[in-house]
């Protein structure tokens, strides 16, 4: 996802690495190119400005350690700022609550919400040995509940039996009852999506959230949609309040801008990234590792 950004940045920073002494002019020039590279990667303009200002402020006049070249210092500062921009520490899904712990999945249609629901369920079941129940609250798309049932069969995760004619709230309450009765640790609620953010969708999800008090509300966003993904996340967070973000299609050839600006724009952590269509194609988001990958 970051390939072209990595190439651009290493070009800029390599130039610096070879220099003996670093002047303010060097830093300003390098930051101009870093700025261009980040904008090309589709990072939000405000985020880019803030980022380059911070690096500049730290780099100009920085005391250069004897063991490194001035250029290496700048690379280190860029790395540290990238990590900070990405959210510093990895933030896994938080299950520290009384069972059944609720995870509400929200997002636009086609973002990968249902697939991610199954991936998380698969991981919690097989890696963390949790007893997981999946429930589809999507009563708008006729096949949605059936789609989740099939995914449950494929991944070996329990799904809430389908009862025709129930509304999302009724299904959510039934899921809670079933989970308590069945001794489940976690309930993952998949919700209906829309092609665009609209009031009706937001109201519906907000009502469900108010009724079930999920411990996590995860916004699923498609990284290939770049800044749209960031705007979608902002809208959902504003209307509903999310606890974290899952960025899907990180295996695709997106330009990385969504991953880079998401945290800075929304203030919410990217918790997981989807890296393929298989059940295990889900990874924790580690800001440090991502920054190293970006810097090559
Ligand atoms: P929903 O409408 O948001 O529930 O979207 P779906 O879960 O049905 O996913 C839409 C398509 O995206 C499916 O074909 C998924 O296999 C695919 N998909 C989901 N996540 C990823 C991912 O991380 N990488 C790739 N390559 N495909 C994904």
Structural features, described:
Keywords: Cytoplasm, GTP-binding, Hydrolase, Nucleotide-binding, Ribonucleoprotein, RNA-binding, Signal recognition particle. It is a peripheral membrane protein. Belongs to the GTP-binding SRP family. SRP54 subfamily. It catalyses: GTP + H2O = GDP + phosphate + H(+). Its EC number is 3.6.5.4. It is a single chain. The protein is α/β, with parallel strands linked by helices. Helix content is 51%, strand content 13%. An eight-stranded mixed beta sheet has the order 3-2-4-1-5-6-7-8, with helices on both faces. The radius of gyration is 22 Å and the shape is elongated. The chain starts with a helix and ends with a helix. The model has no long low-confidence stretch (mean pLDDT 92).
Residue windows where pLDDT falls under 50 for at least 5 positions: none
Principal-axis shape: elongated
What fraction, in percent, of the residue positions are helical? 40-55%
Distance between the termini: 12 Å
EC number: 3.6.5.4
Subunit structure: Part of the signal recognition particle protein translocation system, which is composed of SRP and FtsY. SRP is a ribonucleoprotein composed of Ffh and a 4.5S RNA molecule.
Subcellular location: Cell inner membrane; Cytoplasm
Family: Belongs to the GTP-binding SRP family. SRP54 subfamily.
